[in-house]
Amino acid sequence: MKHQSSDATVEIAPIFVERNSTSSNRGTSTSSEFWISLKRSRTISWFCGAILLGTIGGFSIAVSQDLKPKVSADIVYGHKDGLAMTMDRFEPVGKSNGIGLMFMVSGGWVSSWNPPERMMPLVAPMLQKGYTVFAVRHGSSPRYLIPEIVSDVRLAHRHIVENAKLFQVDPNKLGVFGYSAGGHLSLMLGTTSNDRSGDAPRIAAVVAVFPPTDLRPYMEPSNPLREKFPALKFELSKGVDYSPLLQVTKDDAPVLMVHGDKDELVPLWHSEKMRDALKGTGVANQLVVIEGAAHGFDAVGNKRMFDAMGDWFDQHLLGLTTKPGE
Predict the structure, then answer these.
(1) pLDDT tens per residue across span 202-212
(2) Residue 295 CB: number of other CB atoms within 10 A?
């Protein structure tokens, strides 16, 4: 979901970007070097739907000059209405651990294309831990509604699994994370993938940051947010099917949620009720509450969020024993 943005610069070491030759309207494959910088004590507007996550200042995500992240940009995972659906693959810094993470590029269920270097602050902490990150873009609101958007990210999930050998990731240990609407989509994959029959791809771990978990209040015709976020304008009776809170079953992926206790756009109860539902079915879960934070975190909150995220994926995808948030 959207929030007011502010300006800031972010500082990170150079990354090399390879344009995928099969991408739509991006020309031939080229390599170019980009620089981004990260400043302290600033609020930065995450590009994805103008979600305000605050600053990353206060801890370093600078990458060694000898360890330059490599990006395969605009990988086509499907087509829709004659258009290519794309994602970017960020290779880990240093040695890969062979595990892939899907990052849901979504704010207010709008998924804008941006140069990979602008996404680096969102993925660099996971790259430094050895994870491969797939930044997945979906069909955007207002043209597409949430049921169609969920179908898009499921298609991307399947594409990664079917090409896991090419991408050099384990198809049975995929994680997913996202912020706000991206957190909702992450939870949708985490709560509906593992109970699908046949050869349906599975999700092994989820991290959702201030996610809406029950869409029904937002979908009410009297709620002004329904107009502000038109992806919600689908049949009210189907709200259950696209509310992660109401899709919880015992085979769901382990879930970590991070939420501010002063969030008015997506109140804390969304994560609290999700925590209780997961606990009731025996699914591993944790809720990290950032005190005093609204729909976005400051430097301290962001560090705590990324630390918890990395620990959660380490625990559930790599089998490490560090408890998230410690």
Answers:
(1) 999 999 999 99
(2) 24
- Compute the distance between CA of residue 261 and CA of residue 267 in angstroms, rounded to an integer: 7
Answer yes or no: are the C-beta atoms of 210 and 262 closer than 8 Å.
no
Q: Which range is least confidently modeled, 41-55, 90-104, 120-134?
A: 41-55
Q: Write down the residue that tokens 């909702």 correspond to.
A: 184
Cis peptide before 142 (omega within 30 of 0): yes
Output the CA–CA distances (angstroms, integers) from residue 135 to 138, 268, 280, in the order listed: 10, 26, 32
Nearest residue to 163 via CA among 50, 22, 26: 22
- Per the CB < 8 A criterion, the answer to whether 286 and 257 are in contact is yes
Interval 187-204: pLDDT, tens: 999 999 987 766 778 999
- Residue 59, CA distances (Å) to 128, 231, 264, 277 in order: 13, 35, 27, 34
Helices and strands per DSSP (H, E), number in the chain: 8, 12
Listed in sequence order, the residues at least 6 apart from 155 whose beta carbon sits closer than 8 Å to its beta carbon are 77, 78, 85
User: Do β-strands 10-19 and 70-80 pair in parallel, antiparallel, or remain unpaired?
Assistant: parallel
Please say whether the beta carbons of 102 and 174 come within 8 A.
yes
CA 74/CA 150 separation, integer angstroms:
20
Inter-residue contact 151 to 193 (CB < 8 Å):
no
